[in-house]
Amino acid sequence: MTVNTTSRPSWKRFLPAIAGGLLVVVMALLPLLNISIPGVLPGPTYTPGSLALLSLCLVFAALALSYNLLLGTAGMLSFGHALYFGAGAYGLGIVLRATDLPLWPGIFVAILGGLVIAVVTGAVAMRVSGIPFAMVTLAFAQAGSVLVRRNQQVTGGEEGSPSAPPTCRTGSSGSSTRRTCTGSCW
């Protein structure tokens, strides 16, 4: 009796990781390239509309990966992703509007806030499993939705936090006139 001991070469087992790494590199370089994809992107990849669409795609891809991690890997059906998704988005908007923090420290504060919410709600939700787990996570997501809708002066309600109106001032120094703007001045 002979046993076939041939196996895949060792590099082939790393093929999915290599392909994923190459995909990340291509996606990182995509905004720098002048590529038009009619029917998919509103213009070349470096224009503001295409960049906004690509960033929105990345946000939803991260949400899909979190669903895959929880349901696909751990086998836990959760309806509470909207709570953490919204907590991060609203938290960042509130932190940036209420404080004078720059973007990156604001992101860090929003992540910490989302982490605290996840630890508190996870401590309760992880006490059950199966359908009760799904219902507990759904209840937390609905409670977050009610909290957002009832505090419109802070969160902006379901429409989200309004952008700060641009403030522009014109000043002159000597023979030149200079316009200084904060916010979105076009």
Short synopsis of the structure:
The protein has 186 residues and is mainly α. It has 6 helices and 2 strands. It folds into 2 domains: 17-75, no CATH class; 76-156, no CATH class.
Rg, nearest Å: 23 Å
Beta-strand residue fraction: 5-15%
Structural class: mainly alpha
The number of distinct helices, counting runs of at least 4 residues, comes to: 6
The shape is flat
Uncertain runs: none
Helix and strand string, N-terminal first? HHHHHHEE
**Count of separate structural domains:** 2
Measured between the Cα atoms of the first and last residue, the distance is 79 Å
Helix content: 55-70%
Q: Which sequence of strands runs across the widest sheet? A: 1-2
Produce the secondary structure layout.
Blueprint: H1 15-29, H2 48-73, H3 81-98, H4 103-125, H5 131-150, H6 152-155, E1 167-173, E2 176-182
Antiparallel strand pairs: 1-2
